[in-house]
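So, can you check this one?
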Amino acid sequence: MMQSSLPSKTIKNSKKKATDTSHKKNAYGLVTPFVIFFIVTILIPIIISFAFSFMKIGYSFEFVGFDNYLAIFRDPLFIKSYTNVLIIMAGSIPITMLLAIYFAVLLNSAQLKGKGFFRTVYYIPTITSTVAVASVFMTFFNPTGLFNGFLNALGINGIQWLTNPFWIRISMIITMIWLSVGYNTILFLAGLQGISKEIYESAEIDGASKFRQFFLLTIPMLKPIILMATVLATINGLGNFNIPNIFFGTSNGPENSALVVGVNLYKTSFEMVDFGKASAIAWTMVFVSVILSAIQFKFGGDKND
């Protein structure tokens, strides 16, 4: 009996090994195309870009160490581009988050009818081309455009939206807010719908007002989504290119007030044809994104993590 059972166990083990091997081959077969695509289209260009940032690229490739980084940090336009970007981000991101949370709370209200329609309306800016939106807003900001027409109707003098450095930044902030509020509204709405109604019912029984419920329950429970949305908005803001490019092309606007890092990167690459410095600028964007994201996770993340 013992001798007859041994071959059957051996056969079962061999079949199991063959099945496991087949599953592994299938898994590798499914993963391999993605890995190859990732290596060819993402990893290799990243490595090449990082290498280029340490080179002077002309008719030949010359290793120059940190000279490209030192050169861009000595360039006033590089500093100006980051100053403009940080001002625009500081003006647009907080307002975007506040408006998105407000709209999400409205859309989550049980009394609101036609929620599907309003969700679609709020999401439309997200799927609309940034170039198209910037072009439309540029006409709104013209001296005879919609915004000045509205101000004139109220008896207020028109604003120099696209000629005054201060208002140029405000115009870009307004455009960025309009583009990003809808996406963040849907994010926060999904977060609100994941909060149990029983929590609010318990708080209401304990005598908590709607105001206290919002700040003591809703905001803390939305904290991970707020953090994620803020980090994504920061990364998106650093890479802002289309809005200033549509408004002013590569002219940078009066007093370089529309010069952002993305436009500076483009001009360095294709107008100055200095791919070494352009790569260095691109990598400063990576470093700044990492630093700002780390700061946000430090102060906005869970203290227990």
Remarks:
- The beta strands are 55-57, 61-63.
- The first helix runs from residue 2 to 52.
